[in-house]
Amino acid sequence: MKILTSLKIGFGLTFLFVFVYNGLVALDNKHQAEGDAWDYIHLGLSIAKTGKYGHFDASREQIISHFKANRIDSEKYDFTESTAFRPPVWPLLIAGIFIIFGYNLTYLIAFKFLLHLLGMYYFYQILKTLKVQEIIAIVGVFLYAISPAWQLYSRVFLSEPITLFFITLWLYLLVRFVKNRSGFLPQALVGGILVLAHPYYIFLPFSVWFILFLYKELYFKIFLFSSIICAAVISIWIARNFIVLDSNSLILTTSSGAVMAKGWNKKVKNEHTNTQGDLADETLVLKYIDYDRMREYDEISKMRLYKEATLAFICSNPELILPTVSRKLLSAFNPFPETAKPGILETGRWVFQLFALIAMVYLLAFSKNKLVRSLVLALIISTIGITIITYSGFRFRSPQAGLELLFMIFAIREMTKRRSLNKG
Fold first, then answer.
1. What is the DSSP code (8-state) at residue 79?
2. Among 6, 22, 183, 244, which one is most buried in terms of CB atoms within 10 A?
């Protein structure tokens, strides 16, 4: 009892230091958002100020200056065009925070950090529902709390920390349903929200449900209804894009064309890495089709152009399909950084991923827990699926840190049980 109390105090103080330190770093850098992180702020602000999801007539520099001067509330922005380049969950949350609390980036940081605390609570509930020992549960929650992946992305406005929370929430609801056989609707709904938070995980909920069905942990009707409800949630956004963008296509995100092109070109088989995949040049595939180089392509046209060019590249280079897929899959499951990533958090991340990979292999080989085996297999299958279509990488994999930690905890528990049985 004294050991457990001492552990809680020690972990609590350590987490408090990590939590405050990362919060201070995030506050110090809050006006330096750019790239993908800036896109999310821009879209959230567009919803809050214009009521529409898209772009408005102000540059990044202008908006940053307005944030610094606390002038966002008094400024008027004119909406210019709708978009579907980014998934909607994080921008919608940003808009809600701005509308309710005010136009200050500090509120976004506070929200993300509070959401992480809630994620810690749900992760603890997962472990308790699975009857993990209290001391192991405390250690597990502590490791979840100080996850290197969360620390890296907690400091910027990317969607990865938000996705980490939704994966954790979905896992809790799923585990609770599988164990208690009640309340299947919430986990199905959150599965859809998870995909709309980060489309990289589009195959994960469906893979988990299907494998649980194969293991007879879910009835077929539950697998079917969960899949239908999840797809219905996703289809709300697809329907919005179909109507608002005046497109005859079913679009999840218009960035999908560029993402496919980054994952399919001549350089991938030799140069793709798990640290810089998103920096690849999507324009490399354009030489495989004839297109109007003088035309100014809109968002949808550009998406279609990249998809058409990617398919043309694949058809023109069938001998590169297997080497490209092999390179991407090896990279996707490689826990080590394929280009140098200095820093203690980057080191912590690959160490964490290495132990997670070992745990997954061990659980597949020795575990008889159908739920845990289903989660391992589903993560592998969903990763293979999305990697073949697009690509994977350290950043995209970071939201699955909680799931990987769960594998490590169960691998340790299985090892302990086997050792006890062998001794007995």
1. E
2. 22
Q: What angle do CA 239, 76, 296 make, to 5 degrees?
A: 55
Greatest CA separation for the chain? 77
Does one domain contain both 302 and 379?
Answer: no
Mean local confidence (pLDDT), 134-151 = 96
**356: domain range?**
2-32+104-245+334-423
Q: Do 228 and 365 fall within a single domain? A: yes
Calculate the alpha carbon distances from 182 to 124, 155, 179, 192, 319 in Å: 20, 38, 8, 19, 50
> Residue 245 corresponds to which tokens in the numbers above?
């963008």
Does 49 reside within a domain?
Answer: no
Domain assignment present for residue 57? The answer is: no
The answer as to whether 54 is a domain residue is no
- pLDDT one-digit tens code per residue, 233-289: 999 999 999 999 988 889 999 999 999 999 999 999 999 999 988 778 999 999 999
What's the average model confidence in pLDDT over 208-233?
97
Q: Tokens 């978009």 correspond to what residue? A: 83
Single out the residue of 230, 131, 221, 133 nearest to residue 190, CA to CA. Answer: 230
User: String of b and e for 89-99 (b: at least 16 CB within 10 Å)?
Assistant: bbbbbbbebbe
Query: Tens digits of per-residue pLDDT, 47-75?
Result: 999 999 999 999 999 999 999 999 999 99
Question: Angle at CA 31, nearest 5°, toward 25 and 37?
Answer: 85
Which H or E run contains 250?
none
Query: CB–CB of 86/39 below 8 Å?
Result: yes
Is residue 132 in some structural domain? yes
Residue 30, class by beta-carbon neighbours within 10 Å (0-12 exposed, 13-18 middle, 19+ buried)? buried
Query: pTM of this prediction?
Result: 0.96
Same domain, 296 and 402: no
Number of domains making up the chain: 2
Looking at 309, 332, 355, which one is the last position of a domain?
332
